[in-house]
Amino acid sequence: MALRVARRLCAPAPKGLGLEESYAAGWTRALNDLRSFSFRGFFEERNFWHTGSTGGFWLIVFTAPLWYPAAKEFYWTGQYKQYEKQEILSDRFTWLHERMLEDEIEKVLMKQVPREGFQTPALSLGPDEP
Questions:
Q1: Which candidate, 57, 23, 20, 18, places its Cα nearest to that of 37?
Q2: Residue 36: band (very low, low, confident or very high) from pLDDT cuts 50, 70, 90
Q3: Contact between 54 and 48 (Cβ < 8 Å)
Q4: Is 41 within 8 Å of 47 (Cβ atoms)?
Q5: How confident is the model at residue 1 (pLDDT cuts 50, 70, 90)?
Q6: Contact criterion met (CB below 8 Å) for 5 and 11
Q7: Least confidently predicted of 5-19, 65-79, 80-94, 99-113
Q8: How far apart are alpha carbons 117 and 69 in whole angstroms?
């Protein structure tokens, strides 16, 4: 273990992979290219056939009819899920409120019942004997 650490400490600094410019220089160059961009030069025929890298642009243009509806569907699915959760909670609170009202009404009615209860006469729907 100690020999590995010593070897790592004594080893020369690693060399790059042949990249001449640094990370910051690459970003600076990309930013300068973006500032000097012109649509006239981009759509010029010579640039299109010889030097232009237009693959990404045309990929976006030709696939827009596919990903735009998919993005809309993704957005609206999320909105409806959120709306559905709100509706479920609203229904549960409505149900709970109705049950609480029923309990209050039952409590008030039970206080009005006489101590001996109600005397119900025997009800008959017709004669006992034909």
A1: 57
A2: confident
A3: yes
A4: yes
A5: low
A6: no
A7: 5-19
A8: 69
